[in-house]
Amino acid sequence: MRWICFGVESGNQEILNRMFKHITIDQIKKAYSLSREAGLFIAGNFMIGHLGETKESALDTIRLACELDQEYASFAIAIPLPGTELYQHCLDNNIPLPTWNDFGSVNTPPIPLNESLNSPELLRLRDLAVNSFFKRPVYLLKLLIRMKPWNVLKDFIAMYFAIRAEKKAKRL
Known about the structure:
This protein is α/β, with parallel strands linked by helices. It has helices spanning about 15-20, 25-35, 55-65, 85-90, 120-135, 135-145, 150-170, and strands at about 5-10, 40-50, 70-75. The protein has seven helices and three strands; from the N terminus they run E-H-H-E-H-E-H-H-H-H.
C-alpha cells in the first residue's frame, strides 16, 4: 500500500487564508481526486481552534473531512508552540501558556485562542470530528472494501500453517 498524507488543516477558506496555507478548498479536493486516481491511500490532518476559528468554521472542517474520500483523518487542537504566530498571540493577549515540558502533551488542556471557543468546547468539537468521521457507515464499508481484510486474514492463516509445518518438520 502506498499512502499520502495531506495537511489540510481547515475546511474553511477564511481560516486557511489566516493560516497562510496558500491553498483553496477546491485545490484540496483536486489533490485528493488525483491521489485517488493514482491508487494511493489517503490520510488528512485537520486542526481545530486556530486564530479566528468559530464553532461554524470548525464544523466546516468536520464536514470537509467527512466529504473527502480518504482512509484516515486525524483531528488536533491548535497548539501555540514557541516561535509561532499562535504563541505570540498568546503572549500579546495574556493567554496563559503551559510550561515547556507540557506543550503538546495529551494531558495538557487545550489553550483557547479565541473568545468564542473555550477549552471544553474545543474538546467537544474534536470529539465530534472524530466521531463524525470514523462512525460513518459508508466510511467503514469503503475501508473494508479497499483494505481487503479477507486477503489479509487469508495470508495470516497461510502463514500460520506454513510456520506450523516448519516446526513439525523441525526446521524452526
